[in-house]
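Readers of this paper often ask what the protein records in our data store actually look like. Such a record has a labelled line for the sequence and another for the backbone structure tokens. Nothing more is needed to write down the fold, since each code stands for a local backbone conformation. The record that follows is passed on verbatim for readers who wish to inspect the format.
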Amino acid sequence: MIDRRSLLGATVAGTGAMLLPDAARAMAAAAADPVAPYRTPYKYPKLILAGSGIPGSFDEKAVDCPFVFSANGKFYLTHVGFDGIGYQTGICESDDLINWRRLGIIMARDPDDPITRYNIACASILRENGLQSPARLIKVGGRYVAAWHAYPNAGYEEGAAVIGLAWSDDFMHWERGPVILRAEDGADWERGGLYKPTLMKDDDTFYLFYNAKTTGEPWHEQTGLATSKDLKTWTRHPGNPIIPNGPRGAPDARFASDPVLVRHDGRWGMFYFGLAYDGHARDLLALGNTLTDFRKVDEVLIDVGPPGSIDEKYAHKPSVIYHDGALYHFYCAVSGKWPNDVRGLAVARSKPW
């Protein structure tokens, strides 16, 4: 895995500037434990967002797939809602990252559109990359850009989904763009269908990380990458999948899914979730010096809870934001048994509540 020595009175390399003792200790700790900035061991005990239970509402049955950012002095959380037919995408706002106000749907299915007639799930909006940044959105050509995926059939993630982009002037009203990735154009590991995409930009290149599944039962999910210079022409990375499944006893033996990328201290961190053969999903981490070469961390970041807890079955699908000296790690928590399980959004953070 990726010796502690005393850095009291040390200098910043190449500058001659003196480090204060606290800063020196922090640097020593980071060098000795590169996972430390990513840990969020303190779970909030209740769901922060659940299915509304309102008949006919887009999120009647469940909410899923959190994506968090800041804007206009507030925090925003996009999420998909399931109504028994399919996914649609909503948004809520908060002043404290715990209490959330629903603002409604921002991407709705279109019965007249063969691609989104049952589902449209916005998974990410282009935002700042820094782990400890305010997670503000970034515009391209004066507009916000988001990545979505859509399943072709009614029901819960039925059929081979495609990935596309959408554009907005205000991040509340979105115009759907074209499909950019299809399962049939990929390799065997993704022929069963595409899942949640994360869109990001580094230098002059756009990166789209996504997970996809194999055909047949039981299927496996792994994480791949496509890149573009113009958001129009996309090229799959020749080394895909860049996050493959682990061995049978690993926490990601079946799924290595839902990648989320951040940059910290010159290194890239990829949050993702794994599904093990024990039937539980957990949030994990991989670290890399580049965006195409990652090493998995041998540690579970968010584990499932004890029987009876909100995340006794799954603790998965990460999204993170840094606020007031703490890292907040949002995830989808699932308890109970399908099809009567309870699926909602939860959060853990790096300091006690």
